[in-house]
Amino acid sequence: MKRSILRWGVSVASVLSCVFAIVGNASAQSADVVWKETVDKAKSQRLVIINQGNDAFDRVIEAFTKKFGIEVDASVGRPSTVVHRVKTEQDNGQYVSDIWWAITSNMVNVAAPAGMLAPFEDYLILPEVKDPSNWRHPDYMYGDKTHHVFTYIHEVNTSAFRNSAVLPDVKITSIDDLMNPKLKGKIAVRDSSDPNAGSFSLSPIYRAKGPEFLRKFLQDMNPKVFANPQQLDTALFRGGVAVATGIQYSSYADCKQAGGCQTISEIPGMYYISSRGLSVFKNPPHPEAVKVFLNWFLSKEGQELWVQEWAKANITGAVSHRKDVAPAKGHERFQPDFSKADQYVWTSNAEGSAEINNVVKIFRDVIGN
Amino acid sequence: MQAGLQSGIGVSASFRVLLCTLLLAIVAFFVLYPAVTLFINSFEINTFSTNPSVGLANWYEVFSRTRLINAIENTITLSVARQFIALTVGIFIAWLIARTNLPHSNWLEIGFWIALFMPALPVTLAWILLAAEGIGLLNNAAKTVFGAEGDIFNIYSWWGIVWVHIMTSTLAIKIFLLVPAFRNVDSALEEAARTCGASILKTLIHIVVPIMLPTIIVVTVLGAIRSLQAFEIELILGSPARIDVYSTAIYKAVNSQPPTHGIASVLSIIFLAAVVPMVAVQQRISAKHSYASISGKFANRIFDLGRIRWPLFWGIATLLVFMTIVPFILLIVGSFMTIFGVFDLPSPWTTKNWTDALSRGDIPRALWNSLKLAGSASVTGMVTYSLIAYVVVKSKFAGRAVLDFLTWVPTIIPGLVLGLGLLQMFAGLPIFRPVYGTMTVLVIAVVIGTLSLGTQIIKSSLLSLGRELEEASWASGASRFYTFRRVIFPLIAPSVIIIGLEVFASGIAVVGLVALLGTGSTQPLSITQLIYIDGGFFGPASVIGIIIMSISIFAALIARQISSRSGLKRAAG
Description:
Chain A is of the alpha/beta class. Chain A has helices spanning 2-42, 55-68, 79-91, 105-111, 127-130, 197-209, 211-220, 229-237, 249-257, 287-297, 300-313, 350-366, and strands at residues 47-51, 72-76, 99-103, 117-118, 149-158, 160-163, 187-190, 224-226, 243-245, 264-266, 271-281. Chain A contains twelve helices and eleven strands. Chain B folds into two domains: 1-31 and 351-573, MetI-like (MetI-like fold, Orthogonal Bundle), CATH 1.10.3720.10; 69-345, MetI-like (MetI-like fold), CATH 1.10.3720. Chain B has 25 helices and two strands. A two-stranded antiparallel ribbon of chain B has the order 1-2. The radius of gyration of chain B is 24 Å and the shape is globular. Chains A and B meet through β2, α3, α4, β8 and α8 of A and α5, α12, α19 and α24 of B.
């Protein structure tokens, strides 16, 4: 009896294996056919991409055009400007741009809720891109719940630094130490009246200690507020303040590389995650070219090229969310530890955005709009 | 004064009325469309959502902002202080340059032209480097050399903001615009005052200033409006000192996430309502106090300053050093620094910023776009503004007062909001579809943006011309066009060239007005620079700043050369 059940079980398993193999193969073959047809159609289209201005974007686009023969009209746009322009165009029935390739904050918080973006999954063809198991954490593939914004980079940012040449006797090893009265007036923060690098850099305080602590910190410590990040960097590096939140890590790294900033150090526990991503504008005029670019760029080949080119032009952030793409040498520290994802504020996704909006509200209440 | 357009160019009176009406209609369309858009936007709620609605929520929110009162107070006090200082000093220096034997006055004038083209952001950063509390180089030097205990200067302050404004464009633009007008004052009037025993100061206050009143009022009103709209310096220097101004509230509303167009529109309408009376008063005063100072008996003899000419020269030269050479050197030095302003590094110097900037493919394209934009806007602007000013001053066209008032509208709408209105016009109206996304749109935007300044300055210049100059020409049988070409134009040419130059410089450095209109293929260099600053790439951004400034200075020198060579030297001094 037992033997017959076993035989029956083996037979069923064999049949199912064959069925899955055939279906899987057919599906792969089908994706392959669709891919080839899409590439053929895309060759007559001229893709319109808006990006954020960096050599890496240009090099990757050059490689794409070389590989597929698809011309790209790439322009550089400030995210806050892009939303104005594209919304006005779309409201007037003009659909000019295809892809937006940038930091995802404006995509998630402005463009997606305004209905300016197309569902991203509609443009994915290759199984290696669609398969969530190829990405480090499936919950972080998309920046928004409605899946309009695909995030291919999550980068750890250091939020706060101190200069021990100023008030050397003051110990700062935790967020609580920032409330030391001796630091009053000796702390600088970047303007956080909007969801930007300033409010991102205050978010670890909010996450770790709650809203009242952050409010008290801003009220009691009387921080200097800088709108310009370079101004903030200089104030810390030259000893104008003892602590600064919102410093650009690249400036700090440049300073270190030049042999300076010996008294500057990171404040433990002050980290947040920023993300880079892609979205497709509603009714893209060149849909096949969009599909080819997205699937190629998010494949192992595209992501490896991105990491390599980004590392050539930048001192931080040459990482990929793909499991099979390693960070560039020296960039490992910017890769988040996804097994402890809860420890970070994910500033560019929906949940993180809610926290950032609270930070902004507190900042506006205390410091001003 | 308004004999104009009644004979001579071979067209009928009705056709001339038709042309003037067409001009009025075109100007009205381009300036009123953004204004109407502004009004409509002020009632739109949740623009960046899938279900925008209409209501008064934006108005309620603005009027419930308690901090706005404080921002308005700061805006008014800062504007009054810097306009008062700049106007007083500006009139004096412009008179010295135009009407006296001040040594090297031509070079000093060019110095102020250059000061006008110094970009605000890097110059502000340079002053932070010099005078920041605790770390400024001047404060450190004072401690080392004079043993000062505390900081002497603090750039993050109310007076710091006033100072940087005066050191950038607030003073320079007054001298830039007043010098040509001073040159058109008949020196016989000053000589009469001096013969009657009046001192230099008394002559300046009681004779020259009243004659110049229409121009001075135009320059003052334009300066005041610019002051009220300024936000860049306030944003950088005001934030650490918690000094908010009204214009930063508009800037933040446009750039917030999501953008709050409605709030920005309400704030702009309030601004507009506050400024319109200033314009009306200016028009009333100008109409009552316009003097034709250039007549058939015009004399332009220079005034002898005697022994004080050299001390005055050194005083102005020192001021210019701080306005141009010091920030320019700091700008150049900054572009070669690893970290701007951080000198105590083992290797503080680098050429990386230059190699990074010059190796980027988008910079040559953006540079070419900027040159096309600035050049086209400059030529279009000179022709357009001259035409409008001529109709306003020299014609009997019934709508000329309305036309004159309309030229002020683009200035009284904040640049960012005007840019938004223009975007809605170009993207929304089918007539503009063929040119949307092209350079033409950007040129139109720059010409609209500088319409007030251009028209009003040329208008002031035309008002100073005596009617007998034209009448003598007509009596000799010359046509109206010939009279304009050979008599009127040479006399107003210095002002027209200066306006052309100002439009060129605006076209090179323009940001707010075209930020929403420039696409990839038409994006000018100034927007590329802004994108680099946003992205934290200050090295390449500072290099672009130097390129922009160098082009403007080069254009200034060329314009100077042209005005000297084209027989205008008499008028230009």
